[in-house]
Structures are given as C-alpha cells and as structure tokens.
Specification:
The complex is a heterodimer of chains A (79) and B (509). With 79 residues, chain A is mainly α. Chain A has one domain. Chain A contains three helices and two strands; from the N terminus they run H-H-E-E-H. In chain B, helix 4 runs parallel beside helix 12. The chains are: A mainly alpha (79), B mainly alpha (509). At the A-B interface, helix 1, helix 2, strand 2 and helix 3 of A face helix 5, helix 9, helix 10, helix 12 and helix 21 of B.
Chain lengths: 79, 509
C-alpha cells in the first residue's frame, strides 16, 4: 500500500526532474537551439519554459487525483 | 511620474492594506493563547486556505519584483527562475508533504529528530534554517526598502525600519493565525493585481503575447528571447537549476505550513492549490517582464534601481496611471510584509521550539514559556532583518533569494529526504550533512564572483560559479551517507522501522 504510493511518487518525481533538467541542460549547452524562433516573437526557449510549467501542473494534478481517489480510500479501509 | 514623489492614491492603498492587516492581527491575537496557536494556528486551516497561504509565502518580493526586473533587464534568463521555482512544488508534494504532516509538530526538525537523537539534530537544523532565513530576509528587506523609497520618497534605511516594525507587530501579537490570513489576503491581491497588470500590458499588443515578445526582440535584439545573458556558464545554469528546484523542499517557512492543516490529505490538496496559483503567477511574470522591457525601457528601469527590482511598479504606472501604481505598490509591499512575517515566525519557531524547549530545557517546558521565548525570538529576528536589509542595499532580490534556495537545498533538503527514505541514516550523518551543506553553501557564496568581484571589488573570484548548488547539494548528500555508513547505529535503524507506519499512514496502528 505505502509501497504503491512511493512507486507513484518516485516515478512522478523522476518524470518532473527529467523534464526540468532537460530544459536546464538545453539552457546550459544549447543556447542557439533555444534561441531559434518558431514564429516572430516566439523562441523555442519560451515555448519549452511554458511547457515545463504546464507539465508541473499536470503531474501535480495526476498525483492529487490518484491519491485522493485510490490511496485515501484504501488507507481508510486499513485503519 | 517621478520616482520618489509621494502620491495620495498610492498612500491611500498602502494605509488601507495596513489597517486591514492590523485588523486581522487584532482578531487573531484574541485567538492566540498557546504555543500551538502561535505556530500552527491550532491546526485548523483548510486546504484552500493553506494553499493560498503557501502560494503567498512563496510568491515573495523575489517572484514579483525580482523576476519581473530580471526579465526586463536580461530577457529569457530571468524566466529560468520562474520555471525553476515552480518545479520544486511537485517534488515537495510527491516526496515531502505527507510524511512531514504525519510526523511533525511545529518545525521540520521534528521529523528528523523523531528517529534520531534530539539535541544534536535540533541544533544542526536550527543553524541550517537560520542561515536560509537570514538570506531570504535580506532579499525581502531590500525589495521593501526600494519600494517605499520609490513611493514615499523616504530614505531607504527608514523604509527598512518601518517594514521591520510593522512585521514585528503582526507576528508578535497574531502569530500563525494572523500571518496565515495576511498571506491569504495578499495572495489573492497579488494574483488579481498581477493578472490585471498583465491584461493592461497585453491590451497594448492586441492581446497577443507574441506581438509583445516580437517587439522586445525588435528593440533589444533576438538575444532577449534566448538564454545566455545572465547565466553564461553551463555549469552555473545547472547549479542554479538544482538550487531552485530542491531549495523549495528545504525552506523552513514553507515546510512549517504543513502543520497548520488537519491531516496528510489536506496537506496534499493544499500543495495542489498552491502549485496551480504559483504556476499561473509565474506565467504572468513572462508578460510583466517583457512588458516592462518594451514599455518602460531598460535605461529607465536601471535608473530607478540598479537591480531592476522596480520594473513591475513602474510598468503599472505606465499602463494604469498613478492609482494603479499605488495599488500594485501596496500589493508588492503587502507581499514583502507577509513573507517577512512568515520567515520570522519560522525563525522564532526554530529558536524557541528547537533550541530553547528541546535543547536548553530538555523538553521540560510549558506552553506559556515557549510562547514567551518565541515572542522574544521574534523581536531579535526583526532587529537582525533590519540590519541585514540596510547592509545589502542594491542587490537584485531574485538573485538573493536564489542564494537562500541554494542554502536550503544544501542544508535542509538532503537530511529531510534521507530521514524519510533511508533507514540507515544516523544522528552523526544528519548532523555532519547539515553543517557541511550550510558551510559549503555559505563559503562558496563568499568566494563567488557575486561577493568577491561585485561587492569586494577584487579582480577575480576563487570559485567561478555564482550559485553554489551543484557542489554543495551533492556534497551534503555524500557526507550524510558516508558518515552514516562508517559508524552504523543499529538502534536508530530499528527506530526508523518503528516509525515507518506513521510516516506513510499517519497512524501508529
């Protein structure tokens, strides 16, 4: 039960870190790529920056949903 | 609109907010009778309230004034802060929030101390927490000083003293209850104000952010939309990124908020609300920063404050007139005040709950005495905050908070994570990790270009990076693990297994 929560929590953490450090590594090592403009006024860097924030939202939402529906009800049964 | 000129509308909003928040404080003071009330508002805060208060604690002067300023002056690189500060939240949610709620009472040291030896752990984490709080306070005081100087034409030093005094009144009399409600009011005002400001900016560009970004690129070159101006060195970028993400999970005033709610489920939901608010707010900083760059122009922003901290209020004056300028300044001021109050409260909790009650008095203290010590600690911290604020005039507040995050990520985060996840952590390991992490972060900041070249005007800096995270965070983890493995303590391992159920399930059964 607790193990299931850790599995989910850890995989979501890893996913978040992968997305974020992917972004940071691009900032660190491939500045020209992030600077390339897709449309006037829109660089790839800005698009990815917004995407990282959106991913953070989605992962948080997934976790809260999972924990509130599955985890807590089974936890209640356990007590 | 000339900087430093007092204007009635602005002052009206200011006074309005201060009266409102003092009213909250008076109301809360009548309900703050025990240490429990003082630190955690009695544990009766709801998820939405706590989510807003968390967001309020987190969206500090650094987020609003600092990031808008950094983006206005350096373009894309300022956004690294926006993104980095948000992604710490899911990590807090997944790894820390629920175990923390299940194990602790007032400070995050409760969690670590629950399975290890009390005293050494509490002393160590007090040192780490106070270092973080000091740097965080500097940033807020610098922002407040600039803001009041811009608004009222008061000298910077007088402004810092006023902020310190008003904050002291909130915390001293209202404790966590007042601080939480001031945070909630401020979070709502800040989100509303920033949204309105962003809309007013976008209205000038046909509600098309791309037109705004394109105009910025036309005026200052395509470089503003690409990384490279602020973070030139790749390793420095990674270092900053690490510190921003992991620091959130080591901030004492954020961690403390998990004790104001009833249970782990409420803690979880409150992080959900907080993440939503903060993410939305950081998306707005994209607009505000580039808006200030285009509408105000870099030279004008730099003229008012070299660190760029006044970009957002100036932008408000430009798109919304004096009244709106007053409103935004009042919101920014409220933001600072509330964050300073939250920080001071967590500092007071550390000094009184961790050091006084559990170390000096060996846990033999009553709630009345603890409350008295906490209030004395609050006064001491307010004085420290005022002095530091005056000493560090002229720094960009987002950068300063970046350093506070680096210290938090090095001193507190490794120990907290290991104490929740790793059964073999020992007291000596946790202690060594906190001290080494704090010392490494502080020492490397001292040796970095920011202090050696910018402040002390030396030719070169011994340590090349502006942010110490990439060295000090792994170092703190390695020290904790190596020291724990060298001298294993079987009793502490078995105590961890005894606590495991409580960590995960929130019950001893």
């Amino acid at each position: 039960m607790a193990a299931a929560r850790w599995r989910i929590a850890l995989s979501l953490t890893v996913a978040m870190m992968a997305v974020y450090f992917g972004f940071i590594l691009l900032v660190a090592f491939d500045k020209p790529l992030l600077g390339s403009t897709i449309a006037p006024g829109l660089s790839l860097g800005i698009v990815l920056g917004v995407l990282v924030i959106v991913v953070a939202w989605v992962l948080t939402w997934v976790y809260v949903r999972w924990a509130n529906t599955h985890y807590d009800s089974r936890l209640g049964g356990l007590r | 609109m000339i900087a430093g000129e007092a204007n009635t509308v602005a002052i009206g909003f200011f006074v309005g907010f201060i009266v409102l928040s003092l009213a909250i404080t008076v109301w809360a003071a009548r309900r703050t009778r025990t240490a429990d009330h003082f630190y955690t508002a009695g544990g009766g805060v709801t998820a939405l309230q706590n989510g807003l208060a968390l967001a309020g604690d987190f969206m500090s002067a650094a987020s609003f004034l600092g990031i808008a300023g950094l983006v206005a002056l350096s373009g894309f690189d300022g956004l690294i802060y926006s993104v980095g500060w948000l992604v710490g939240w899911p990590v807090v949610m997944f790894l820390i929030a629920e175990p923390l709620r299940n194990l602790g009472r007032y400070t995050f040291a409760d969690v670590v101390a629950a399975r290890l030896r009390q005293k050494p752990i509490r002393v160590a984490s007090a040192v780490g927490s106070l270092a973080v709080i000091a740097f965080y306070l500097i940033a807020q005081m610098v922002g407040a000083g600039n803001l009041i100087r811009l608004l009222f034409g008061l000298p910077y030093e007088a402004a810092v003293v006023i902020v310190g005094g008003v904050m002291l009144a909130y915390v001293l009399f209202g404790g966590m209850m007042a601080t939480t409600w001031v945070q909630i009011v401020k979070a709502v005002l800040l989100l509303g104000g920033a949204t309105l400001l962003a809309l007013l900016v976008l209205a000038r560009f046909g509600f098309n952010p791309l037109a705004l970004f394109a105009e910025a690129a036309r005026m200052y070159g395509d470089g503003v939309l690409a990384p490279g101006r602020l973070v030139t060195d790749p390793v420095d970028a990674i270092s900053l990124g690490l510190a921003l993400m992991l620091g959130t999970a080591g901030l004492p005033h954020i961690l403390m908020r998990f004790y104001t709610v009833r249970d782990a489920r409420t803690a979880r939901s409150s992080v959900g609300y907080a993440t939503a608010c903060i993410g939305f707010f950081y998306l707005l900083t994209f607009i505000l920063g580039f808006g200030a760059m285009v509408i105000i122009g870099r030279p004008a922003i730099m003229k008012v404050d070299a660190g760029g901290n006044m970009a957002a209020p100036l932008l408000a004056a430009a798109v919304g007139g004096t009244g709106f300028f007053g409103f935004i300044s009042a919101v920014a001021f409220a933001t600072i005040l509330a964050v300073v109050a939250g920080l001071t409260l967590s500092g007071a909790a550390t000094l009184s709950h961790d050091l006084w009650v559990n170390v000096v008095r060996h846990g033999q203290s009553n709630s009345r005495e603890e409350l008295l010590v906490a209030r004395a600690a609050t006064v001491a911290l307010a004085i420290v905050a005022i002095v530091l604020g005056i000493l560090f005039k002229g720094q960009n507040v987002a950068y300063m908070v970046g350093l506070a995050f680096a210290i938090a990520a090095s001193a507190n985060f490794p120990v907290l994570v290991l104490s929740i996840f790793w059964s073999r952590l020992t007291t000596a390991g946790a202690q060594a990790s906190t001290y080494v992490g704090t010392a490494a972060a502080l020492g490397l900041i001292w040796l970095s270009p920011a202090i050696q070249i910018d402040v002390l005007k030396h030719e070169a800096a011994w340590f090349p990076l502006r942010n110490p995270g990439v060295v000090s965070i792994p170092l703190a983890f390695v020290v904790a693990i190596v020291v724990s493995l060298l001298r294993p303590v079987p009793e502490e391992v078995s105590r961890f297994h005894a606590l495991e159920r409580r960590i995960h399930l929130g019950t001893d059964a």
